[in-house]
Amino acid sequence: MTTLIINIKELLQVRESNILKVSGSEMAVLPTIKNAYLVIKDNLIAEFGPMKNIPQTTFDKTIDATGKMILPTWCDSHTHIVYAGNREQEFVDRINGLSYEEIANRGGGILNSAQKLNETTQEELYEQSKERLEEVMRLGTGAVEIKSGYGLTVDGELKMLRVIKKLAQHYPIAIKATFLGAHAFPLAYKDNHQGYINLLINEIIPQIAKEDLAQYIDVFCETGYFTVAETEQIIEAGIGFGLKPKIHVNQFNSIGGIQSGVKFDALSVDHLEVMKTEDILALKNTNTMPVALPSCSYFLSIPYTPAREMIAAGLPLALATDYNPGSTPSGNMNFVVATACIKMKMTPEEAINAATINGAYAMDLSTTHGSITVDKKANFIITKPIPSYNQLPYAFGTNLIDQVFIEGKVIA
Ligand code: NIG
Ligand code: FE
After folding, report:
1. Could you tell me the fold of the domain covering 75-361?
2. Packing angle, helices 154-170 and 110-118, rounded to 10
3. What's the predicted TM-score (pTM) here?
4. 322: Cβ below 6 Å to ligand 1?
């Protein structure tokens, strides 16, 4: 099946296949072709270029994109979209003055979601989660990472990861799975932290490896959650079973989690709302992608990741949603890109790079996703007619997506 798309007002994020991420000042450049064509063959990008070079062969289908732009689908490298129920009541409690921390200390927060998840069957969890996956696909996401971490029991964690695996089998979107058993200490281990860590290391991680349920290992490295030493212990055990680290660090406090991530060659370190100069310096010249989650900052009213300082220091930066019931009940990458521009002062070019090629890198997917490149997946968004791509973050509340293609097929 071949499709030719003609008269594309501007084809965004066209890259050679050797570009796997962009860093520092490179992030300000978004390569594009104006008045372009794009050819897709089955599930892949076959060819593209300016309209004057349009191929003179026949195609099964032709689409006229006059006035519209095309960009690669968003690569959302940090989500928790497999969860049960919601936490609307905590949202209202926060409006009425309680803090996220106070709610967690009362046994709400992650433990509240864990209780709901453990009371939900695997089938029901799949049904609830697939709604969110379909929602984010319609919003233009073509690759997504999903974490466990609301089970906090052997059965609960494995249930979550099996649901993620089933989603990956049933949907065309690329899905990467992360084991986040170290998301919080469950009540049963409140006074026996090492006991819970032993459970993660000796029982759950080996079973995950046996069933091939995850590619990554995550830890919530934060005051009141997992210490740096505990984080390192868990990460090391995961690495021993072939899981690469991607860790939650510096959300509320800078306690050395970034340095641990770098030490263990983490694929990414995520959140980064609170960054010391030494944290930024630790990330320089490493393979570790820093990931900012501006919707979380927005929803919790906490600081935004200091993107300008990080980019000025030469670092790359990726943007992701953090879609989860507690801190970010939204999987809208369009909002993430807009918020990064509005609140973090990223330029539209930087934000689009961060949400596509750098997001793909943070999932080990940048050889197949994240840019308009020959032989990459035919995953792209056709916008509605727009005057320039600046409109995407500028009109932050407007849905500017006309169609989403994933693996060469339109998502309804
Ligand atoms: O990334 N920070 C840790 N975990 C999630 C939120 C967890 C929750 O509140 O359910 C996050 O923000
Ligand atoms: Fe998260």
Report:
1. TIM Barrel (3.20.20)
2. 80
3. 0.98
4. yes
Pairing state between β 69-72 and 380-383: antiparallel
* Per-domain boundaries in the chain: 2-72+371-410, 75-361
DSSP string, 57-122: S--SEEEE-TT-EEEEPEEE-------SS--HHHHHHHHTT--HHHHHHTT-THHHHHHHHHTS-H
Bridging pattern class, strands 380-383 and 401-406: antiparallel
- Could you tell me if the CB of 349 is within 6 A of ligand 1? no
Centre of ligand 1 from the C-alpha of residue 195, in Å? 22
Q: Please report which confidence band the pLDDT of residue 412 belongs to, taking 50, 70 and 90 as the band edges.
A: confident
Share of the chain above pLDDT 70, in %: 100
- Return the CATH number of the domain spanning residue range 2-72+371-410: 2.30.40.10
- Ligand 1 atom with least separation from CA of 109: 9
Taking the CA of residue 220 as reference, the ligand 1 atom at the shortest distance is 3
Ligand 2 center–CA 53 separation, angstroms: 45
Tracing tokens 């379909």 back to the chain, one arrives at: 134
**Residue at token pair 């080990």:** 364
